[in-house]
Amino acid sequence: MFRRLTENLFLKLLSLAFALILWFFVMGEQKQELSYAVPLAIKNLPANLMVANEIPSQVDVRISGPRTLLMNLDPKDMGIAVDLRGLQPGVTSFRRLEELFNLPGALKITRLSPSFVDVRLERIKDKKVPVKLVISGAPAPGFELREIQLAPAEVLVEGAEGELKNVAQAETDPVEIEGVRDSFSLIVPIDYRGRYTYLKEDRTVEVHVTIVKLPEPEIPAAEVIGGEQTGEKKE
Q1: 3-state secondary structure (DSSP) of residue 133
Q2: Is residue 23 part of a domain?
Q3: pLDDT tens readout for residues 76-131
Q4: In 3-state terms, what secondary structure has residue 137?
Q5: Do 108 and 150 fall within a single domain?
Q6: Domain that holds residue 139
Q7: 197 CB-side CA count, 13 A
Q8: DSSP label at 94?
Q9: DSSP conformational letter for 24
């Protein structure tokens, strides 16, 4: 065994000396602080749950240490992720995000913003809601909007359970009928803008609008020349 230890002894001593020199160089180098924008992600989102709050896409971190090590850092390689495995619906606070960083021992995090992240998980639900056609303007004088038919009349909305409870309808893009005299049909986009809910299927609706002409008002019988009027005689 002693022979094995003494084999290539010179190369081993040289490698050790080089490592010590490098270590002393790094540790003795003037320290600096640099700021980085580090990507923040989530992982292992449980099935049938979704994130129902705003989570920053990155954290701002300030790191102190030898300039040589700082210059070799790549923010993309420092990306961190919060692990949602096994979580239940509700709010979970992830604190001490600095512990998620894997940095060389000579580097130190001096500032982290935000320093923690709250994650709200909610169950994913769906329900059907009626479609409401948004009308702009009015038909031409003497005409009226008689009927509106929509296909489909309902659409399926899916998303966070808490927000879904307050969804009562899905509105369309405005349909202009100013001065219209005739019935018409067209395809209209559904303008649904949920924050944590979304249209699951149909994103357009077929609209049939019936415009009818109003009956002309009756003109009262006028007095005729000679003193006669409709329905009576003058004595």
Answers
A1: coil
A2: no
A3: 888 899 999 999 999 999 998 998 988 888 889 999 999 999 999 999 999 999 99
A4: coil
A5: no
A6: 124-213
A7: 25
A8: E
A9: H
Lowest mean pLDDT among 11-20, 76-85, 155-164: 11-20
Phi then psi for residue 217, to 5 deg, are -65, 145
pLDDT band at 30 (very low <50, low <70, confident <90, very high): low
Distance, C-alpha 198 to centroid of its chain = 10
State which of 74, 91, 115 marks the end of a domain. 115
Give the tokens for residue 120.
Answer: 């709200």
Close Cβ partners of 44 (under 8 Å, ≥ 6 residues apart): 83, 84, 85
Q: Could you tell me the pTM of the whole model?
A: 0.72
- 89/47 Cα distance (integer angstroms): 11
Same domain, 67 and 96: yes
Of 111, 114, 119, 73, the C-alpha closest to 93 is 119
